[in-house]
Structure formats: C-alpha cells, structure tokens
Amino acid sequence: VQLVESGGGWVQPGGSLRLSCAASGFTFSRSAMSWARQAPGKGLEWVSAIYADGSTYIANSVKGRFTMSRDGPKNAIYLTMNSLRPEDTAVYYCASDGGVQGAEYRGQGTQVTVSS
Q1: What are the C-alpha distances in Å from 81 to residues 16, 52, 99, 105?
Q2: pLDDT, tens digit, 9 for 90 and up, residues 53-94
Q3: What was the pLDDT predicted at 101?
Q4: 68, 59 in Cβ contact below 8 A?
Q5: CA 3 centroid distance within chain
Q6: Distance between CA atoms of residues 2 and 13, nearest Å
Q7: DSSP states of 84-111 as a string?
Q8: Quick one: residue 47, left, alpha or beta (phi over 0 = left, psi -120 to 50 = alpha)?
Q9: What is the predicted pLDDT for the residue at 42?
C-alpha cells in the first residue's frame, strides 16, 4: 500500500488549499479512504472519509468548509479546504484500510500552515 500526499503549504486565514493523495498497491474501489490531521502537541483527528459503500464522514470542526472527493479512475482522493483558520494548521495525512477491515495505512503527511 502506498499513499502519497501533496498540495500542502502556507496560506493566510480565509484562504484555500487543495490536498491530493495518490494511492497504489491495493484495490482502490473496495477501500475506505480518509483524511486525518495532527496539530502540534495534539492527537490525531479524523477529518473526512469516503467508505467503499459510498457513505461519508466529515468532522464537525470542518463541516461546511472542507470537501472530500474521490476519483476512481485516477486512484486518488482530494481534500478541498476553504475558509482556512489558524486552528487548521496541522500535518494532514491520507489514510486507507487497503480493503482490509480494521487495517490502517497512512501516507507521510503534508504540512498545512494557516497564519498571517
């Protein structure tokens, strides 16, 4: 399983970023895909997910601002982040179960910094 994130960076409050995750090494269509983040000194927070059955999850902390999408033919997921706040500053990880219930794989992460 390989998950490679890209698209992080620095942005001012109120700005937008789009994260991408390229997935390989497993059957993408049968796998749950997620975004999680870890802010400095804090634990991992699950941000959004799209499961193999099409159901979705979005954290209350980002609802209305972040949108997750999934591109089957490209084996990729995206996280479009709007109205960014300083508290969104974190390392963002792409994650998947790789099609195996209970398994968890994560990419190396991409840093998102929101500050003026």
Answers
A1: 5, 23, 26, 22
A2: 989 999 999 999 999 999 999 999 999 999 999 999 999 999
A3: 87
A4: no
A5: 11
A6: 32
A7: --GGG-EEEEEEE-TTSTT--EE---EE
A8: alpha
A9: 97
Give residue-wise pLDDT tens across range 18-40. Answer: 999 999 999 999 999 999 999 99
Amino acid at position 84, single letter: L
Tokens of 69: 């999408």
Band of the pLDDT at 102, cuts 50, 70, 90?
confident
3-state secondary structure 6-71: ECCEEECCCCCEEEEEEEECCCHHHCCEEEEEECCCCCEEEEEEECCCCCEEECCCCCCCEEEEEE
Please name every residue paired with 96 in a beta bridge, in sequence order, or none if there are none: 33, 105
Residue from 42, 97, 36, 35 nearest 68 by CA: 35
If 0-12 CB within 10 Å is exposed, 13-18 middle and 19+ buried, where does residue 19 land? buried
pLDDT at 59 (0 to 100) = 98
